[in-house]
Amino acid sequence: MDVQVEAVYRNSYLNIISALFKKLGLPQLIDHLVPVDPQCQTRVSDAVQAILYNVFDGRQALVHLEHWAQEVDCEKLIRSGLHPSQLNDDALARHLDRLYEAGIHNVISTCLIHIYRKEGLSLRAFHADTTDKTVYGAYESASLEALQITHGYNRHHRWQKQIGFGLVGNEDGIPFYGDVHDGNLPDKTWNPEVLSRVHEQLKQAKIEDEWIYVADSAAMTKETLAQTKAANAFLITRGPSSLRIVKQALAEADAQDTTWSDPFTLAERNGATYRVWETASTYEGHPVRLIVVESSALDQRKGKTLEKERTKEAELLREEQARWERHPFSCREDAEQALASLKASLRPRFHRVEAAVEEIVRPKKRRGRPKKGAEPEVETLYLLHLDVEFDQDAWEQARRKASRFVLVTTVPKEWKGQPMDAQEILKLYKGQISVEMNFAFLKDPFFTDEIYVKKPERVAVLGYLFLLALAIYRVFQRRVRQFITPEHPLKGPGGRKLTRPTGQAIFQLFQYVNVVLFKLPDGRIQRSLDRSLTPDQRRILQGLGMDESIYV
Protein backbone atom coordinates (compact mmCIF):
# COMPACT_ATOMS: atom_id res chain seq x y z
CA MET A 1 0.00 0.00 0.00
CA ASP A 2 1.06 3.58 -0.66
CA VAL A 3 1.23 6.43 1.83
CA GLN A 4 -1.99 8.46 1.55
CA VAL A 5 -2.67 12.08 2.42
CA GLU A 6 -5.39 11.95 5.08
CA ALA A 7 -5.84 15.72 5.59
CA VAL A 8 -4.15 19.11 5.31
CA TYR A 9 -4.69 21.54 8.21
CA ARG A 10 -3.96 25.27 8.21
CA ASN A 11 -2.96 25.38 11.86
CA SER A 12 -0.57 28.35 11.53
CA TYR A 13 -0.01 30.04 14.92
CA LEU A 14 -2.85 28.23 16.71
CA ASN A 15 -0.47 25.46 17.77
CA ILE A 16 1.65 28.02 19.62
CA ILE A 17 -1.38 29.33 21.50
CA SER A 18 -2.46 25.75 22.23
CA ALA A 19 0.98 24.82 23.57
CA LEU A 20 1.04 27.95 25.75
CA PHE A 21 -2.46 27.26 27.08
CA LYS A 22 -1.42 23.74 28.08
CA LYS A 23 1.92 24.82 29.54
CA LEU A 24 0.01 27.19 31.81
CA GLY A 25 -1.99 24.18 33.02
CA LEU A 26 -5.33 25.80 32.21
CA PRO A 27 -7.20 22.74 30.79
CA GLN A 28 -6.69 20.81 34.03
CA LEU A 29 -7.60 23.84 36.14
CA ILE A 30 -10.84 24.44 34.22
CA ASP A 31 -11.86 20.78 34.46
CA HIS A 32 -11.16 20.93 38.20
CA LEU A 33 -13.34 24.02 38.62
CA VAL A 34 -16.12 22.61 36.39
CA PRO A 35 -15.91 18.81 36.79
CA VAL A 36 -16.29 16.55 33.76
CA ASP A 37 -19.82 15.22 33.22
CA PRO A 38 -19.56 11.43 32.61
CA GLN A 39 -22.56 11.61 30.29
CA CYS A 40 -20.81 14.13 27.99
CA GLN A 41 -18.37 13.13 25.27
CA THR A 42 -16.58 16.46 25.71
CA ARG A 43 -15.19 18.38 28.66
CA VAL A 44 -15.69 22.02 29.55
CA SER A 45 -11.99 22.60 28.83
CA ASP A 46 -12.57 21.24 25.28
CA ALA A 47 -15.31 23.80 24.65
CA VAL A 48 -13.25 26.62 26.20
CA GLN A 49 -10.22 25.78 24.04
CA ALA A 50 -12.29 25.46 20.88
CA ILE A 51 -13.89 28.87 21.47
CA LEU A 52 -10.54 30.49 22.35
CA TYR A 53 -8.70 29.11 19.32
CA ASN A 54 -11.60 30.17 17.12
CA VAL A 55 -11.26 33.69 18.60
CA PHE A 56 -7.58 33.78 17.62
CA ASP A 57 -8.36 32.43 14.15
CA GLY A 58 -10.99 35.05 13.35
CA ARG A 59 -14.03 34.42 15.50
CA GLN A 60 -17.23 32.99 14.03
CA ALA A 61 -20.67 32.31 15.49
CA LEU A 62 -20.88 29.16 17.63
CA VAL A 63 -23.20 27.54 15.10
CA HIS A 64 -20.28 27.54 12.61
CA LEU A 65 -17.64 26.34 15.05
CA GLU A 66 -18.13 22.66 14.20
CA HIS A 67 -17.38 23.40 10.54
CA TRP A 68 -14.35 25.48 11.55
CA ALA A 69 -13.09 22.59 13.73
CA GLN A 70 -12.96 20.37 10.64
CA GLU A 71 -10.36 22.70 9.09
CA VAL A 72 -7.92 22.56 12.01
CA ASP A 73 -6.10 19.71 13.73
CA CYS A 74 -8.39 19.35 16.76
CA GLU A 75 -6.59 16.32 18.16
CA LYS A 76 -3.29 18.23 18.24
CA LEU A 77 -4.76 21.54 19.35
CA ILE A 78 -7.14 20.30 22.06
CA ARG A 79 -6.73 16.59 22.92
CA SER A 80 -6.39 13.20 21.32
CA GLY A 81 -9.64 11.43 20.45
CA LEU A 82 -11.67 14.65 20.03
CA HIS A 83 -13.71 14.76 16.82
CA PRO A 84 -14.97 18.04 15.28
CA SER A 85 -18.55 16.75 15.25
CA GLN A 86 -18.45 16.69 19.06
CA LEU A 87 -18.07 20.47 19.04
CA ASN A 88 -21.56 21.15 17.69
CA ASP A 89 -23.54 24.16 18.83
CA ASP A 90 -25.74 22.15 21.21
CA ALA A 91 -22.71 20.75 23.05
CA LEU A 92 -21.07 24.17 23.23
CA ALA A 93 -24.28 25.76 24.55
CA ARG A 94 -24.51 23.13 27.30
CA HIS A 95 -20.93 23.85 28.35
CA LEU A 96 -21.59 27.60 28.37
CA ASP A 97 -24.51 26.97 30.71
CA ARG A 98 -22.36 24.74 32.95
CA LEU A 99 -19.71 27.46 33.15
CA TYR A 100 -22.34 29.99 34.16
CA GLU A 101 -23.79 27.70 36.82
CA ALA A 102 -20.30 27.03 38.22
CA GLY A 103 -19.77 30.81 38.59
CA ILE A 104 -18.03 32.05 35.46
CA HIS A 105 -16.56 35.08 37.26
CA ASN A 106 -14.88 32.88 39.85
CA VAL A 107 -13.68 30.43 37.19
CA ILE A 108 -11.97 33.13 35.12
CA SER A 109 -10.65 34.93 38.22
CA THR A 110 -9.02 31.71 39.39
CA CYS A 111 -7.49 31.23 35.93
CA LEU A 112 -6.07 34.79 35.98
CA ILE A 113 -4.56 34.32 39.45
CA HIS A 114 -3.08 31.02 38.22
CA ILE A 115 -1.52 32.77 35.20
CA TYR A 116 0.06 35.44 37.41
CA ARG A 117 1.56 32.75 39.64
CA LYS A 118 2.86 30.71 36.71
CA GLU A 119 4.41 33.75 35.02
CA GLY A 120 5.78 35.24 38.26
CA LEU A 121 4.18 38.59 37.45
CA SER A 122 4.53 41.66 39.67
CA LEU A 123 1.57 42.65 41.84
CA ARG A 124 3.00 46.11 42.62
CA ALA A 125 0.68 48.29 40.51
CA PHE A 126 -2.54 47.67 38.60
CA HIS A 127 -4.23 49.77 35.92
CA ALA A 128 -8.03 49.81 35.79
CA ASP A 129 -10.60 50.98 33.26
CA THR A 130 -13.91 50.01 31.65
CA THR A 131 -15.31 49.93 28.15
CA ASP A 132 -18.52 48.88 26.42
CA LYS A 133 -19.36 46.50 23.60
CA THR A 134 -22.36 46.83 21.32
CA VAL A 135 -24.71 43.86 20.98
CA TYR A 136 -27.79 43.53 18.79
CA GLY A 137 -29.79 40.47 19.86
CA ALA A 138 -33.09 40.20 21.71
CA TYR A 139 -31.73 38.45 24.79
CA GLU A 140 -34.24 37.01 27.24
CA SER A 141 -33.77 35.51 30.69
CA ALA A 142 -36.09 34.52 33.52
CA SER A 143 -33.42 35.42 36.09
CA LEU A 144 -33.17 38.92 37.54
CA GLU A 145 -29.57 38.16 38.50
CA ALA A 146 -28.52 37.61 34.88
CA LEU A 147 -26.41 40.14 33.00
CA GLN A 148 -28.53 43.21 32.23
CA ILE A 149 -28.04 44.01 28.55
CA THR A 150 -29.36 47.55 28.48
CA HIS A 151 -29.51 50.57 26.23
CA GLY A 152 -27.15 53.39 27.10
CA TYR A 153 -24.79 56.00 25.71
CA ASN A 154 -21.38 54.65 24.78
CA ARG A 155 -18.14 56.63 25.01
CA HIS A 156 -18.87 58.19 21.61
CA HIS A 157 -22.28 59.38 22.92
CA ARG A 158 -24.22 56.97 20.71
CA TRP A 159 -27.39 55.33 22.01
CA GLN A 160 -26.99 51.56 21.75
CA LYS A 161 -27.66 48.19 23.37
CA GLN A 162 -24.47 47.25 25.19
CA ILE A 163 -22.62 45.27 27.82
CA GLY A 164 -19.67 46.54 29.85
CA PHE A 165 -16.16 45.15 30.33
CA GLY A 166 -14.04 46.02 33.35
CA LEU A 167 -10.31 45.30 33.41
CA VAL A 168 -7.55 45.54 36.01
CA GLY A 169 -4.09 44.54 34.80
CA ASN A 170 -0.37 45.14 35.08
CA GLU A 171 1.91 47.28 32.91
CA ASP A 172 2.11 44.48 30.29
CA GLY A 173 -1.67 44.57 29.95
CA ILE A 174 -2.14 41.08 31.42
CA PRO A 175 -5.50 41.09 33.25
CA PHE A 176 -5.43 40.18 36.93
CA TYR A 177 -9.13 40.91 37.28
CA GLY A 178 -11.87 41.17 34.69
CA ASP A 179 -15.63 41.35 34.69
CA VAL A 180 -18.57 41.56 32.33
CA HIS A 181 -21.14 43.90 33.80
CA ASP A 182 -24.43 45.64 33.05
CA GLY A 183 -24.35 47.99 30.10
CA ASN A 184 -25.20 51.14 32.07
CA LEU A 185 -22.98 50.69 35.16
CA PRO A 186 -21.17 54.03 35.74
CA ASP A 187 -17.41 54.07 36.38
CA LYS A 188 -17.91 55.95 39.64
CA THR A 189 -19.84 52.95 40.96
CA TRP A 190 -17.55 50.35 39.37
CA ASN A 191 -14.27 51.63 40.85
CA PRO A 192 -15.01 51.14 44.56
CA GLU A 193 -16.66 47.78 43.86
CA VAL A 194 -13.72 46.48 41.86
CA LEU A 195 -11.22 47.61 44.50
CA SER A 196 -12.97 45.35 47.00
CA ARG A 197 -12.99 42.43 44.54
CA VAL A 198 -9.32 42.80 43.61
CA HIS A 199 -8.48 42.86 47.30
CA GLU A 200 -10.40 39.58 47.71
CA GLN A 201 -8.48 38.06 44.78
CA LEU A 202 -5.18 39.10 46.35
CA LYS A 203 -6.23 37.52 49.63
CA GLN A 204 -7.24 34.39 47.69
CA ALA A 205 -3.70 34.35 46.32
CA LYS A 206 -2.49 34.79 49.93
CA ILE A 207 -0.99 38.20 49.19
CA GLU A 208 -1.46 40.80 51.91
CA ASP A 209 1.04 43.32 50.56
CA GLU A 210 0.23 46.96 49.67
CA TRP A 211 -0.43 47.78 46.02
CA ILE A 212 -1.19 50.75 43.76
CA TYR A 213 -4.47 51.27 41.91
CA VAL A 214 -4.23 53.50 38.80
CA ALA A 215 -7.47 54.71 37.20
CA ASP A 216 -8.95 57.60 35.24
CA SER A 217 -10.70 60.65 36.71
CA ALA A 218 -13.91 58.73 37.54
CA ALA A 219 -12.00 57.24 40.48
CA MET A 220 -11.74 60.65 42.16
CA THR A 221 -14.65 60.10 44.55
CA LYS A 222 -15.09 59.84 48.31
CA GLU A 223 -16.19 56.19 48.01
CA THR A 224 -13.18 55.16 45.90
CA LEU A 225 -10.71 56.85 48.25
CA ALA A 226 -12.29 55.11 51.25
CA GLN A 227 -12.32 51.72 49.52
CA THR A 228 -8.70 52.18 48.38
CA LYS A 229 -7.65 52.53 52.00
CA ALA A 230 -9.78 49.53 53.03
CA ALA A 231 -8.22 47.43 50.25
CA ASN A 232 -4.69 48.12 51.56
CA ALA A 233 -3.98 50.08 48.39
CA PHE A 234 -2.91 53.52 47.18
CA LEU A 235 -4.62 55.51 44.44
CA ILE A 236 -3.23 57.34 41.41
CA THR A 237 -5.81 59.15 39.29
CA ARG A 238 -6.30 62.24 37.19
CA GLY A 239 -8.02 65.07 39.01
CA PRO A 240 -11.16 66.39 37.28
CA SER A 241 -10.68 70.04 36.27
CA SER A 242 -13.95 70.93 38.04
CA LEU A 243 -12.57 70.11 41.51
CA ARG A 244 -11.67 73.05 43.74
CA ILE A 245 -8.33 71.56 44.83
CA VAL A 246 -7.39 70.95 41.18
CA LYS A 247 -8.25 74.51 40.19
CA GLN A 248 -6.24 75.81 43.13
CA ALA A 249 -3.21 73.67 42.23
CA LEU A 250 -3.30 74.88 38.61
CA ALA A 251 -3.52 78.51 39.77
CA GLU A 252 -0.58 78.08 42.16
CA ALA A 253 1.46 76.37 39.44
CA ASP A 254 0.90 79.41 37.21
CA ALA A 255 2.44 81.81 39.73
CA GLN A 256 5.67 83.61 38.85
CA ASP A 257 7.67 82.15 41.73
CA THR A 258 6.67 78.50 41.12
CA THR A 259 9.70 76.20 40.86
CA TRP A 260 9.10 73.55 38.22
CA SER A 261 11.23 70.45 37.75
CA ASP A 262 13.76 70.22 34.94
CA PRO A 263 12.26 68.89 31.68
CA PHE A 264 12.39 65.10 31.30
CA THR A 265 11.06 62.39 28.98
CA LEU A 266 9.58 58.97 29.69
CA ALA A 267 9.87 57.47 26.21
CA GLU A 268 13.13 56.30 24.70
CA ARG A 269 12.68 58.34 21.53
CA ASN A 270 10.28 60.85 19.98
CA GLY A 271 8.50 61.16 23.31
CA ALA A 272 6.86 64.19 24.89
CA THR A 273 8.82 66.34 27.33
CA TYR A 274 7.36 66.90 30.81
CA ARG A 275 7.76 69.29 33.71
CA VAL A 276 6.15 68.68 37.09
CA TRP A 277 5.34 70.64 40.21
CA GLU A 278 3.91 69.19 43.40
CA THR A 279 1.78 70.43 46.27
CA ALA A 280 -0.43 68.81 48.92
CA SER A 281 -4.06 69.08 50.01
CA THR A 282 -6.95 67.08 51.45
CA TYR A 283 -10.06 65.72 49.74
CA GLU A 284 -13.06 64.39 51.68
CA GLY A 285 -10.83 64.03 54.72
CA HIS A 286 -8.08 62.10 52.87
CA PRO A 287 -4.59 63.67 52.55
CA VAL A 288 -3.52 63.67 48.89
CA ARG A 289 -0.55 64.75 46.80
CA LEU A 290 -1.34 66.97 43.81
CA ILE A 291 1.12 66.78 40.92
CA VAL A 292 0.72 69.39 38.19
CA VAL A 293 2.09 68.03 34.91
CA GLU A 294 2.99 70.14 31.90
CA SER A 295 3.43 68.23 28.64
CA SER A 296 5.02 69.40 25.42
CA ALA A 297 2.45 67.33 23.53
CA LEU A 298 -0.80 69.27 23.62
CA ASP A 299 -3.89 67.07 23.70
CA GLN A 300 -5.34 66.97 20.18
CA ARG A 301 -8.88 67.87 21.29
CA LYS A 302 -7.67 70.79 23.40
CA GLY A 303 -5.49 72.00 20.52
CA LYS A 304 -8.49 72.03 18.16
CA THR A 305 -10.57 73.87 20.75
CA LEU A 306 -7.91 76.57 21.13
CA GLU A 307 -7.62 76.99 17.36
CA LYS A 308 -11.39 77.40 17.08
CA GLU A 309 -11.37 80.02 19.86
CA ARG A 310 -8.55 81.95 18.20
CA THR A 311 -10.24 81.92 14.77
CA LYS A 312 -13.58 82.97 16.24
CA GLU A 313 -11.95 85.79 18.22
CA ALA A 314 -10.12 87.10 15.12
CA GLU A 315 -13.37 87.13 13.09
CA LEU A 316 -15.20 88.96 15.89
CA LEU A 317 -12.51 91.66 16.06
CA ARG A 318 -12.59 92.14 12.28
CA GLU A 319 -16.35 92.59 12.46
CA GLU A 320 -15.96 95.13 15.28
CA GLN A 321 -13.37 97.07 13.24
CA ALA A 322 -15.66 97.25 10.22
CA ARG A 323 -18.73 98.16 12.30
CA TRP A 324 -17.20 101.15 14.11
CA GLU A 325 -15.54 102.50 10.98
CA ARG A 326 -18.95 102.60 9.29
CA HIS A 327 -20.61 104.51 12.15
CA PRO A 328 -18.92 107.85 12.96
CA PHE A 329 -20.02 110.06 15.88
CA SER A 330 -20.94 113.74 15.62
CA CYS A 331 -19.49 114.69 19.01
CA ARG A 332 -16.38 113.57 20.89
CA GLU A 333 -18.28 112.89 24.11
CA ASP A 334 -20.44 110.22 22.45
CA ALA A 335 -17.35 108.68 20.85
CA GLU A 336 -15.51 108.58 24.21
CA GLN A 337 -18.49 106.88 25.85
CA ALA A 338 -18.64 104.29 23.05
CA LEU A 339 -14.88 103.75 23.41
CA ALA A 340 -15.21 103.09 27.15
CA SER A 341 -18.05 100.65 26.55
CA LEU A 342 -16.07 98.88 23.81
CA LYS A 343 -13.00 98.48 26.03
CA ALA A 344 -15.16 97.01 28.79
CA SER A 345 -16.83 94.49 26.44
CA LEU A 346 -13.72 93.40 24.53
CA ARG A 347 -11.67 90.86 26.48
CA PRO A 348 -9.54 89.14 23.83
CA ARG A 349 -7.40 86.17 24.89
CA PHE A 350 -5.10 85.91 21.90
CA HIS A 351 -4.95 89.46 20.49
CA ARG A 352 -3.75 92.88 21.58
CA VAL A 353 -6.29 95.58 20.78
CA GLU A 354 -5.49 99.30 20.81
CA ALA A 355 -8.66 101.42 20.52
CA ALA A 356 -8.74 105.22 20.18
CA VAL A 357 -10.99 108.07 19.02
CA GLU A 358 -9.90 109.58 15.72
CA GLU A 359 -11.04 113.04 14.60
CA ILE A 360 -11.71 113.53 10.89
CA VAL A 361 -12.78 116.61 8.95
CA ARG A 362 -14.64 116.11 5.69
CA PRO A 363 -16.94 118.08 3.38
CA LYS A 364 -20.49 118.17 4.60
CA LYS A 365 -22.89 116.43 2.25
CA ARG A 366 -25.84 118.52 1.01
CA ARG A 367 -28.69 117.74 -1.33
CA GLY A 368 -28.54 119.11 -4.83
CA ARG A 369 -25.81 121.03 -6.64
CA PRO A 370 -23.90 123.63 -4.59
CA LYS A 371 -24.18 127.32 -5.60
CA LYS A 372 -21.54 128.67 -7.89
CA GLY A 373 -18.63 130.17 -5.95
CA ALA A 374 -20.02 128.99 -2.56
CA GLU A 375 -17.50 127.86 0.01
CA PRO A 376 -17.94 124.11 0.76
CA GLU A 377 -19.14 123.37 4.27
CA VAL A 378 -17.11 120.93 6.36
CA GLU A 379 -18.00 118.80 9.37
CA THR A 380 -15.95 117.23 12.14
CA LEU A 381 -16.67 113.57 12.91
CA TYR A 382 -15.21 111.07 15.40
CA LEU A 383 -14.41 107.46 14.56
CA LEU A 384 -13.39 104.56 16.79
CA HIS A 385 -10.22 103.06 15.37
CA LEU A 386 -9.20 99.52 16.40
CA ASP A 387 -5.64 98.33 15.91
CA VAL A 388 -5.61 94.51 16.27
CA GLU A 389 -2.41 92.48 16.61
CA PHE A 390 -1.99 88.75 17.31
CA ASP A 391 -0.47 88.19 20.78
CA GLN A 392 2.03 85.36 20.35
CA ASP A 393 3.00 85.36 24.04
CA ALA A 394 -0.64 85.02 25.17
CA TRP A 395 -1.15 82.23 22.64
CA GLU A 396 1.86 80.28 23.88
CA GLN A 397 0.76 80.76 27.48
CA ALA A 398 -2.74 79.47 26.67
CA ARG A 399 -1.25 76.42 24.97
CA ARG A 400 0.98 75.84 27.99
CA LYS A 401 -1.98 76.00 30.36
CA ALA A 402 -4.03 73.68 28.14
CA SER A 403 -1.19 71.14 28.19
CA ARG A 404 -1.31 70.94 32.00
CA PHE A 405 -3.22 68.40 34.05
CA VAL A 406 -3.21 67.35 37.68
CA LEU A 407 -2.54 63.89 39.08
CA VAL A 408 -3.97 63.09 42.50
CA THR A 409 -2.36 60.34 44.54
CA THR A 410 -2.31 58.85 48.02
CA VAL A 411 1.04 57.10 47.41
CA PRO A 412 3.61 58.22 50.03
CA LYS A 413 6.83 59.89 48.90
CA GLU A 414 8.71 56.75 49.82
CA TRP A 415 7.21 53.28 49.42
CA LYS A 416 8.83 49.88 49.90
CA GLY A 417 12.24 51.54 50.15
CA GLN A 418 11.82 53.31 46.80
CA PRO A 419 11.39 57.07 46.32
CA MET A 420 7.97 57.79 44.76
CA ASP A 421 8.58 61.30 43.47
CA ALA A 422 6.34 63.15 41.01
CA GLN A 423 8.20 61.72 38.02
CA GLU A 424 7.65 58.13 39.21
CA ILE A 425 3.93 58.82 39.82
CA LEU A 426 3.60 60.22 36.29
CA LYS A 427 5.38 57.17 34.89
CA LEU A 428 2.94 54.86 36.65
CA TYR A 429 -0.04 56.89 35.43
CA LYS A 430 1.20 56.84 31.81
CA GLY A 431 1.17 53.05 32.04
CA GLN A 432 -2.62 53.37 31.86
CA ILE A 433 -2.21 52.92 28.10
CA SER A 434 -1.67 49.19 28.75
CA VAL A 435 -5.28 48.62 29.84
CA GLU A 436 -6.62 50.92 27.13
CA MET A 437 -4.79 48.90 24.47
CA ASN A 438 -6.66 45.83 25.72
CA PHE A 439 -9.93 47.41 24.65
CA ALA A 440 -8.69 47.41 21.06
CA PHE A 441 -8.48 43.59 21.33
CA LEU A 442 -11.93 43.30 22.91
CA LYS A 443 -13.48 45.44 20.16
CA ASP A 444 -11.52 44.04 17.22
CA PRO A 445 -14.08 42.28 14.97
CA PHE A 446 -11.39 39.74 13.98
CA PHE A 447 -11.20 38.47 17.56
CA THR A 448 -14.59 39.32 19.06
CA ASP A 449 -17.19 39.70 16.34
CA GLU A 450 -20.94 39.90 17.05
CA ILE A 451 -22.29 37.71 19.86
CA TYR A 452 -24.83 35.26 18.43
CA VAL A 453 -26.36 33.54 21.48
CA LYS A 454 -29.89 33.72 22.89
CA LYS A 455 -29.49 34.13 26.64
CA PRO A 456 -27.80 36.89 28.68
CA GLU A 457 -26.12 34.16 30.75
CA ARG A 458 -24.35 32.86 27.64
CA VAL A 459 -23.44 36.41 26.60
CA ALA A 460 -21.76 36.83 29.99
CA VAL A 461 -19.82 33.55 29.62
CA LEU A 462 -18.63 34.48 26.12
CA GLY A 463 -17.57 37.87 27.43
CA TYR A 464 -15.48 36.23 30.15
CA LEU A 465 -13.92 33.85 27.62
CA PHE A 466 -12.93 36.92 25.57
CA LEU A 467 -11.15 38.18 28.70
CA LEU A 468 -9.33 34.85 29.08
CA ALA A 469 -8.32 35.00 25.40
CA LEU A 470 -6.97 38.49 26.03
CA ALA A 471 -4.89 37.22 28.98
CA ILE A 472 -3.39 34.42 26.85
CA TYR A 473 -2.63 36.90 24.05
CA ARG A 474 -0.87 39.28 26.45
CA VAL A 475 1.17 36.48 28.06
CA PHE A 476 2.24 35.32 24.59
CA GLN A 477 3.23 38.87 23.60
CA ARG A 478 5.14 39.42 26.86
CA ARG A 479 7.11 36.19 26.41
CA VAL A 480 8.06 37.10 22.84
CA ARG A 481 9.18 40.60 23.86
CA GLN A 482 11.59 39.13 26.40
CA PHE A 483 13.89 37.91 23.61
CA ILE A 484 12.88 40.19 20.69
CA THR A 485 14.51 43.46 21.73
CA PRO A 486 15.99 46.56 20.04
CA GLU A 487 19.39 44.88 20.43
CA HIS A 488 18.07 41.63 18.90
CA PRO A 489 15.27 42.63 16.50
CA LEU A 490 13.16 40.39 14.32
CA LYS A 491 12.65 40.76 10.60
CA GLY A 492 8.96 41.31 9.99
CA PRO A 493 6.79 41.48 6.85
CA GLY A 494 8.24 43.77 4.20
CA GLY A 495 11.69 43.53 5.78
CA ARG A 496 10.96 46.00 8.58
CA LYS A 497 12.61 45.54 11.94
CA LEU A 498 10.44 44.44 14.85
CA THR A 499 11.89 45.50 18.20
CA ARG A 500 8.70 45.31 20.31
CA PRO A 501 6.44 43.12 18.17
CA THR A 502 2.76 42.77 18.87
CA GLY A 503 1.20 39.35 19.12
CA GLN A 504 -0.51 39.88 15.77
CA ALA A 505 2.83 40.67 14.08
CA ILE A 506 4.13 37.29 15.28
CA PHE A 507 0.93 35.59 14.14
CA GLN A 508 1.58 36.89 10.61
CA LEU A 509 4.96 35.17 10.53
CA PHE A 510 3.27 31.80 11.13
CA GLN A 511 0.25 32.45 8.95
CA TYR A 512 1.14 29.96 6.20
CA VAL A 513 2.35 27.06 8.31
CA ASN A 514 0.29 24.00 7.34
CA VAL A 515 0.26 20.46 8.70
CA VAL A 516 -0.19 17.41 6.46
CA LEU A 517 -1.57 14.17 7.92
CA PHE A 518 -0.27 11.04 6.19
CA LYS A 519 -1.85 7.62 6.57
CA LEU A 520 0.92 5.03 6.57
CA PRO A 521 0.53 1.53 5.11
CA ASP A 522 0.20 0.06 8.61
CA GLY A 523 -2.71 2.42 9.36
CA ARG A 524 -0.80 4.79 11.62
CA ILE A 525 -1.19 8.56 11.21
CA GLN A 526 1.92 10.70 10.85
CA ARG A 527 2.00 14.51 10.84
CA SER A 528 4.44 16.60 8.85
CA LEU A 529 4.88 20.27 8.03
CA ASP A 530 4.25 21.17 4.40
CA ARG A 531 7.48 23.19 4.36
CA SER A 532 10.50 23.80 6.57
CA LEU A 533 10.24 26.51 9.20
CA THR A 534 12.20 29.71 8.55
CA PRO A 535 15.07 30.74 10.86
CA ASP A 536 12.88 33.48 12.40
CA GLN A 537 10.06 31.01 13.04
CA ARG A 538 12.51 28.62 14.72
CA ARG A 539 13.93 31.46 16.78
CA ILE A 540 10.48 32.40 18.08
CA LEU A 541 9.61 28.80 18.97
CA GLN A 542 12.96 28.32 20.68
CA GLY A 543 12.51 31.57 22.65
CA LEU A 544 9.10 30.31 23.80
CA GLY A 545 10.58 26.97 24.86
CA MET A 546 8.90 25.13 21.97
CA ASP A 547 9.92 23.32 18.79
CA GLU A 548 8.36 21.64 15.72
CA SER A 549 6.78 18.99 17.95
CA ILE A 550 3.89 21.38 18.66
CA TYR A 551 2.87 20.75 15.03
CA VAL A 552 3.95 17.15 14.36
From TrEMBL:
Protein's UniProt keywords contain Transmembrane helix: yes
Top-rank lineage group of the source organism: Bacteria
Chain segments annotated as transmembrane: 459-476
Keyword Membrane: yes
InterPro entries reported in the protein's UniProt record: DUF4277, IS1634_transpos
Domain DUF4277: 12-109
Keywords: Membrane, Transmembrane, Transmembrane helix
Signal peptide (residue range): none
PANTHER family: PTHR34614, TRANSPOSASE IS4-LIKE DOMAIN-CONTAINING PROTEIN
Protein name: IS1634 family transposase
Biological source species: Geobacillus proteiniphilus
